[in-house]
Amino acid sequence: MRDEPAILDGGGILFVGGYIVLLLGLGVWGRLAQKEKSMDDFYLGGRNFGPFVLLMTLFATQYSGNTLIGYAGRAYRDGFQFIMAPMFMMMVIGGYLIYAPKLYRLSARKRYITTSDFLQDRFGHRPLSLWASALGMIALCNYILTNLLAMGLLVETASGGRFVLWQGILALSVVMVLYETLGGLRSVAWTDVVQGLLLLSGCLIIFVFLNLHYDSYKVLSVDLKTNYPTFWESPNWREKLGWLSTLIMIGLGISVYPHGVQRIYAARSEATLRGSLQVMALMPIVTTFFIVFVGWMGAALLPGLESDRAATDRISLHMIQLLAVETPQFKIFMVVFLAAVIAAIMSTVDSALLSLSSSLTEDWYRLFKPASSQARLALVGKILSWLIMGAMALLAIQSESTIFRLIEIKLELLLQMVPAIYLGVHTKHLSGRAIFAGMVVGTVVTVGFMAAQKLGAPLPAKPLGIYAGVWGFGLNLAVVALAAKFLPAKSR
Questions:
Q1: Quick one: pLDDT at residue 127?
Q2: Which of 140, 206, 238, 382 minimizes the number of CB atoms within 10 Å of its CB?
Q3: 49, β-bridge pairs
Q4: What is the residue-wise DSSP string for 156-176?
Q5: How far is residue 388 from each of residues 157, 225, 262, measured CA to CA in Å?
Q6: CATH 1.20.1730.10 residue ranges for the chain
Q7: Nearest-CA neighbor of 347 among 143, 100, 46?
Q8: Each residue of 300-351: pLDDT tens digit?
Q9: Fold of domain 10-410
Q10: CA–CA separation, 76 vs 54, rounded Å?
């Protein structure tokens, strides 16, 4: 890496440094705006997010470093097959609209803090709420890990190797946990506004510049056909099943992100929530598609990396590097894109960190310390945030997995929570025991497939091209349907 040209020179480092100082300032502002020392104020911003803030915090949370780095790498490796990426991001919003408005109405009356608060109130089944909490926390840890890994790759590549992966991870981790513990979700949401605007600008900039500097039609048709004759081939039936599997896994899995659920709770009104989600449905066109385009252009302009998965995960960064070298007059805009990537990473890590600490505090610590005051619970949550971030930073430094594979593992587990939330919101007589049975079976099947492959058992990672988590989800639903007949809901 040290022989690669650095994208960030002194001016670029100053720009990024100023942006980070701005984030810390917003953290202080969030602290000053704090109205009370309570879980409600710290973790949900007082439940008073208006349309613009709610839209931008939803957007910045959903589109992360995984999108800007992991998706580009997957597009490089998979070619035409990854055209489905914008579709499954649109499907996420469809998932939200199925259950979010009704869940908001319930949360406004019952004052939920976490997803497990809703499940415990709805089903009155403690093993179910704790199992769901554990799945959510595992997914959140994974989410933080993938984005910290993306952050390290970004710093290392952008600096031309002057700063290595672990230095970038540790430095920016401290910044995030500082402003998050200063002002809670209020500070996080305000930083999300800045980060969301940067993210939109960055996606637009790299898409426009690639089209201006290169004949993208020729590059994507003639050059790719020459270099990779199979790049634009239509998928076979097994690969089409993989498409459907991915649509289910990502479309439904992302819609039950614990930090996404908390933003539902934080909306000022149901109308605000609906309006923000409707605008969100358009965002994949100018984010996900643009990043897939970057991956495809990378395959044509920087061929030969497909066997190196770590290198393909860096493809969006290498494309920025290429543009910065070939078009020095546009270098300032490349710095903006890098700031956008940093923004995307930080906006998701801080949200996941906040949600993870709220789950540990509300779902677990409070269970054993029910007499704790609101101020005490908020303090415990802040301490946990520092401990969690330290542990995740160390894990990210040691990780050797590709970013997209880590994303897949997270979503395969989150998928097992979908029946509990979707059916819990819309049914009145479904038993918590039935939901719990389905969730356990789905989790065991999913983890079993993953473990079997790691242990060398003769089982495919994706039977018939379908993710293990989707198989688990199907069995989850089947068990819920059967158990509902034999385990009726208890009267409460």
A1: 96
A2: 238
A3: 267
A4: HHHTTTSS-HHHHHHHHHHHH
A5: 26, 47, 19
A6: 10-410
A7: 143
A8: 888 888 777 777 877 887 887 788 778 777 777 777 777 777 777 777 788 8
A9: Sodium/glucose cotransporter (1.20.1730)
A10: 33
